[in-house]
């Protein structure tokens, strides 16, 4: 009753407003019993929208496949998705926090957050929070166009036309390099994304078991699952 | 002596009068009555919230007078009384809705949310140095596919309604609703009834001054009605857009 600001004025911007991080809650993801999404996640920005693709494998330290149909891309905003990369628990909790905070802000202001604001929020949480090592891609569309960001575990936020994170990133980049075209159609971008995820799935032990494709346009988000990435080629 | 004691009950929010009343809470109810009315109607297809914006001057931007607010995708709130107090409660509701989502990954129930609000309001009737919230809210939304409509009052009591009004003239509007309410009506009929009900106490309702929002049971989405649609509904009402 004595805090007349409601805490809002002095609230730490690196923390979620709803459920602040616990003191001493930070842990490291060295434990081999923690499920990781070894993972290849790819994000491409085109004129018509954003395509985000991921494999579907969860593994223990990249040596045992603990799940073969994980959906590693989730909607966090009316027109944005985030990939789950790193420890599954950390990534899921990160998605829930981001979705709740973005939704709260949208209800207060009447409009969804812009994607660059959402990226900054993601970076702040990644920097301040106990989310293990996570390295998601944020892809979204707003009035300013299509955006892809990689969020690194220390809270680094980098915008790009296309980006890849996860253990299969070099392999997927090999496919994308020289092939990416900002003027390509959404269908062409989906095909290129599928090729990149497939290349990584073939050679990276942390990636595999099919493909999940998220397509984001100004109208919203569509997420499709495929047992085999060749279905999109 | 008698006078002094009377004054003390009057001033202390946490002190009961000898006949068991909390005067500050009753005064807060008066503050609600001084506000312009808000109406809620529950239909088989969803919930309707309607409110009249009182404008003190033609120079004021009408959109800046907000009486109906989105709380979550599937819940809206209409207020009557102190707007500033309403805003604080609405933010409590918005936060609780997202906390529920964060904690259980489920949309908050309308009843759960209403009780979160009223528990917060109740604290302000039992805490020294506080004053109660001078506002009543109508909380409308969809829960498990069913439309629900609740009222919160300054004492912190939740009530569930089929159709209800809060604020200035609410007694008259409630009588009108009691006579005219049909539970089987559709959402459009609910909007018309809500506007008709508001028209019982407000002369010359027009599409610009009335704020209407619906929460549809099928889409489960809170949706403010654009002024053109409000105008269409106003034409269907008995009060009508055209003054006779």
Radius of gyration of chain B: 18 Å
Structural class of chain B: alpha+beta
**Unreliable segments of 5+ consecutive residues of chain A:** none
Average pLDDT of chain A, to the nearest integer? Answer: 89
Helix amount of chain A = 25-40%
Number of helices of chain B: 7
Q: Class of chain A in CATH? A: Alpha Beta
- What spatial form of chain A do the alpha-carbon principal axes imply? globular
Radius of gyration of chain A: 17 Å
Strand order of the largest sheet of chain A: 11-2-3-12-13
* Apparent shape of chain B: globular
Oligomer: heterodimer
**How is the biggest beta sheet of chain A arranged?**
5 strands, antiparallel
The spatial strand order of the largest sheet of chain B comes to: 8-1-2-9-10
General description of the model:
Chain A is of the alpha+beta class and about 230 residues long. Chain A has a single domain (about 40-230), classed as Glutamine Phosphoribosylpyrophosphate, subunit 1, domain 1, CATH 3.60.20.10. Chain A is about 25% helix and about 25% strand. Chain A has four helices and 13 strands. Chain A has helices at about 90-110, 115-130, 170-175, 185-205; strands at about 35, 40-45, 50-55, 60, 65, 75, 80-85, 135-140, 145-150, 155-160, 160-165, 210-215, 220-225. Chain A has a five-stranded antiparallel β-sheet, covered by helices on one side. A five-stranded antiparallel β-sheet of chain A has the order 6-7-8-9-10. In chain A, strands 1-4-5 form a three-stranded antiparallel β-sheet, with no helix packed on it. In chain A, strand 4 and strand 5 (about 65) form a beta hairpin. Chain A is globular. The model of chain A has no long low-confidence stretch (mean pLDDT about 90). With about 240 residues, chain B is an alpha+beta fold. Chain B has one domain (about 35-235): Aminohydrolase, N-terminal nucleophile (Ntn) domain (Glutamine Phosphoribosylpyrophosphate, subunit 1, domain 1, 4-Layer Sandwich). Chain B has seven helices and ten strands. In chain B, the strands form two sheets. Chain B has a five-stranded antiparallel β-sheet. The radius of gyration of chain B is 18 Å and the shape is globular. Chain B starts with a helix and ends in an 8-residue tail after the last helix. The interface of A and B includes residues 1, 99 and 108 of A.
């Amino acid at each position: 009753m004595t805090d007349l600001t409601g805490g809002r004025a002095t609230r730490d911007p690196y923390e979620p407003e709803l459920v602040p991080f616990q003191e001493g809650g930070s842990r490291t993801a060295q434990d081999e019993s923690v499920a990781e999404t070894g993972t290849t996640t790819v994000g491409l920005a085109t004129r018509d929208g954003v395509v985000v693709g991921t494999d579907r494998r969860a593994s223990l330290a990249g040596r045992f496949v603990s799940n073969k149909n994980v959906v590693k891309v989730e909607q966090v905003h009316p027109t944005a998705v985030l990939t789950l990369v790193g420890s599954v628990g950390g990534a899921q909790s990160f998605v829930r926090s981001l979705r709740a905070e973005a939704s709260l802000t949208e209800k207060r202001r009447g409009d969804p957050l812009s994607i660059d604001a959402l990226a900054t929020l993601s970076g702040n949480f990644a920097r301040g929070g106990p989310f293990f090592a996570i390295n998601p891609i944020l892809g979204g569309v707003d009035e300013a166009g299509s955006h892809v960001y990689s969020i690194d575990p220390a809270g680094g936020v980098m915008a790009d036309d296309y980006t890849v994170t996860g253990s299969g990133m070099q392999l997927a980049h090999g496919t994308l390099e020289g092939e990416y075209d900002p003027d390509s159609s959404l269908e062409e971008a989906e095909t290129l994304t599928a090729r990149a995820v497939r290349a990584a799935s073939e050679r990276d032990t942390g990636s595999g078991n099919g493909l999940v494709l998220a397509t984001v346009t100004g109208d919203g988000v569509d997420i499709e699952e495929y047992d085999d990435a060749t279905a999109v080629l | 002596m008698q006078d002094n004691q009377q004054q003390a009950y009057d001033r202390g929010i946490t002190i009961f009068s000898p006949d068991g009343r909390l005067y500050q809470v009753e005064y807060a109810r008066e503050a609600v009555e001084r506000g312009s009315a808000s109406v809620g109607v529950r239909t088989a297809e969803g919930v309707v919230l309607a409110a009249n914006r009182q404008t003190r001057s033609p120079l004021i931007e009408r959109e800046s007078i907000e009486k109906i607010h989105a709380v979550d995708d599937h819940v809206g709130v209409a207020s009557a009384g102190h707007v500033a107090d309403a805003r604080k409660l609405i933010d409590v509701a918005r936060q609780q809705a997202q906390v529920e989502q964060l904690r259980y990954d489920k949309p908050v129930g309308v009843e759960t949310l209403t009780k979160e609000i009223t528990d917060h309001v109740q604290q302000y009737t039992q805490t020294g140095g506080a004053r109660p919230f001078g506002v009543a809210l109508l909380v409308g939304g969809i829960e498990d596919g069913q439309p629900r409509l609740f009222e919160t009052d300054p004492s912190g009591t939740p009530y569930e309604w089929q159709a209800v009004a809060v604020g200035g003239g609410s007694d008259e509007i409630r009588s009108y609703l009691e006579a005219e309410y049909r539970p089987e009506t559709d959402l459009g009929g609910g909007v018309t009834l809500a506007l008709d009900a508001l028209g019982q106490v407000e002369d010359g309702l027009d599409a610009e001054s009335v704020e209407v929002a619906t929460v549809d049971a099928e889409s489960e989405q809170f949706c403010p009605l654009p002024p053109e649609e409000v105008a269409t509904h106003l034409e269907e009402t008995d009060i009508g857009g055209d003054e006779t």
